């Protein structure tokens, strides 16, 4: 059984969308990644930090999904990272209302002993120095290292980010971030430049417009499922990444053809995430639902044409 | 051999993009539709109007593609419709600099006798009353009627537009126009509402993000080919529509499965159109190039997953 290590935030979110508003609920990149990857039955563990205010029931819920939380440090006299945001009517743009780093400000990640030998490593969106610190604690290079990041780190920690990007196999970023990172408007050219920065595989997430997977001359496109309603986009990108690495870890096959399937599963799982507030949908998602939606993805994209 | 009738503008365009700028060159919806459909070897004819200033060489070029131009009325003492625009750096938005309707202002379309019995009818973007006048001249309903339109007609001729939309099988519009026409933000819901206005098939063009084909509960997605460079997007939507109806006419099969192939061909041909200014690429496009690009579309979208 492959071991998957996930590094990222475990947090409180307060979310407002045109459909409603939440109090502080469970959030964080590692949370969404872990829940999504748990669909594939892999043995996974999270490295993160929370405060004494973090409810034990959340940890228990993660454990119930076969996610090891021994790497989530609890700072008893600290407070858990808190983010709040408000989505605009189109749900594609949002304003951040609050970012309280709290215990995250001084986070020194420690990989638990039982995950030092992980086969797959997912570096969720975090300070690039934290991502690097995790890489450095793992003596034998994992089979696949995937990094997610965002424009904030490009604006503020460029040099550290470039260093860690150079160490990974796969980077997942959104289209605007790919443009910022590469200085190229065309996503094809952006991927070419990002390849040169290190990653052999570049996944560009385009939200409701799907995702592109680049590997040199090879390109694959996974659409987003057209939905009647997007309720809350929070965590969709992390859920995509979790589906991607969860599928890769469960199959233990890092070929390009298998990565195609992995981005389809990433898009599949993200399409569930946005159906309810926060992690609610992901906590209650069954394998049957995922399989049925896979059938929808096939119908959405597969066609037969004889080449003449 | 199926007969395809195309109604739409034949025009002069002057285009400015970040890559350069043209004088008055050949343009117009019917021109792009005709050139695109000509790839499929169907017998097609254009109904349109031009002025005495329209070069005969353009008509001859169209004739050389097996496009009948006897339905293009020439008003000797009139001037050809002229549009000029300037694209912004992202090439997704543009400013219209000039729209001189000229001979188009009093256009009374006349379907030539040899196309009264057309099997396929493409109503290119034009005043909805002109589109309706063409439908009314055809005594036996064609096998498939496709309509393209734009926000301008929604703003200015709503009632006439709704009437003609009710008469067609397929509507092709872009995402913003689908939202405007339906009052729904979700494209799934927009398509549902537009179905109720008449068309059994709704094609929503999303430019660089591909196109969606809706037929009741069935949805299919054709991606746009990721390109290193988009040189000039003018005519891409018309080229898409021309590829769609050209393929449908050449196969004479109006099933949903065949429409999937038709939107793939639409996207395929549009990906060529944007590679050069104006109609240049479409005038010099070979069947081999189209077939090779079809292979790229397969690689871009096809995947194998066993459903459990």
What does this structure look like?
Two copies of one chain form a homodimer. Chain A has 308 residues and is an alpha/beta fold. Chain A has a single domain, classed as Ribokinase (UDP-N-acetylmuramoyl-L-alanine:D-glutamate ligase, 3-Layer(aba) Sandwich). The first copy, chain A, is built from eleven helices and 15 strands. In chain A, helix 3 (128-136) links the parallel strand 10 and strand 11. Chain A is globular. The N and C termini of chain A lie far apart (45 Å). Chain A binds chain B through residues 89-90, 185-189, 206, 209-210, 212, 218-221, 223, 226-230, 257, 260-261, 264, 291, 294-295, 298-305, 307-308, and chain B through 89-90, 185-189, 206, 209-210, 212, 218-221, 223, 226-230, 257, 260-261, 264, 291, 294-295, 298-305, 307-308.
Short description:
The structure is a homodimer of 308-residue chains. Chain A has 308 residues and is α/β, with parallel strands linked by helices. The first copy, chain A, starts with a strand and ends in a 7-residue tail after the last helix.
What form of chain A results from the Cα inertia axes? Answer: globular
Q: What is the number of independent domains of chain A? A: 1
Encode the helix/strand succession of chain A as letters.
EEEEHEHEEEEEHEHHEHHEEEHHHH
Count of individual beta strands of chain A: 15
Mean pLDDT of chain A: 96
Percent range for β-strand residues of chain A: 15-25%
The Rg value of chain A, from CA coordinates, equals: 18 Å
The most extensive interface, with participating residues per chain, is: A-B, 38 and 38 residues
As a percent range, the share of helical residues of chain A equals 25-40%
Highest-level CATH class of chain A: Alpha Beta
Biggest pleated-sheet summary of chain A: 10 strands, mixed
Structural class of chain A: alpha/beta
CATH-level-4 superfamily name of chain A: Ribokinase
Q: Can you name the CATH architecture of chain A?
A: 3-Layer(aba) Sandwich
Number of helices of chain A: 11
C-alpha termini separation of chain A: 45 Å
Low-confidence stretches of chain A: none
